[in-house]
Design a protein that fits this description.
The chain has 105 residues and is mainly alpha-helical. The chain is built from four helices and two strands. GO terms for molecular function: metal ion binding; methionine synthase activity.
Length: 105
C-alpha cells in the first residue's frame, strides 16, 4: 500500500536516490510505491532510475565514481525493474531505450 505521505515526486526521487546510493531495497520499494500510486511505469523509470544512472555516469566522467559503481548501479536499477516488469504493458515490454540506456525486458 502506498504511503499517503509520499508524493509522486517523492517516489521518483526515491528511485533516483536508490541508484546513487546503490540501495537495491530502496529501488524495489520505490518501484512498488510507483505501481501502488498508479504512476506510469515508463515515466517513473525515465525520471527516477534513468536520472540516477545519468548522475552516476556524470560522476564517472568527473572521476568521482568508478566503473564498478556504474555496474553496481545498473544492478540496482535491474532490481527495481524486476518489480515493474509484470505490470508493464505489452507495448512497453521488449527493448526499451532510455536516453543512452537500452534494456531488454
Amino acid at each position: 500500500m502506498t504511503d499517503p505521505k509520499l508524493s509522486c515526486q517523492d517516489i521518483i526521487e526515491m528511485a533516483r536516490h536508490s541508484i546513487i546510493t546503490l540501495d537495491d531495497k530502496e529501488a524495489e520499494f520505490a518501484a512498488q510505491e510507483a505501481l501502488d500510486a498508479g504512476l506510469d511505469p515508463v515515466d517513473f523509470i525515465e525520471k527516477g532510475f534513468v536520472e540516477g544512472m545519468r548522475e552516476i555516469g556524470d560522476r564517472f566522467e568527473e572521476g568521482k565514481a568508478s566503473l564498478v559503481q556504474i555496474f553496481a548501479a545498473s544492478r540496482i536499477m535491474d532490481a527495481g525493474m524486476n518489480v515493474l516488469k509484470p505490470r508493464l504493458s505489452k507495448k512497453d515490454k521488449g527493448f526499451c531505450f532510455f536516453g543512452n540506456i537500452a534494456m531488454n525486458a
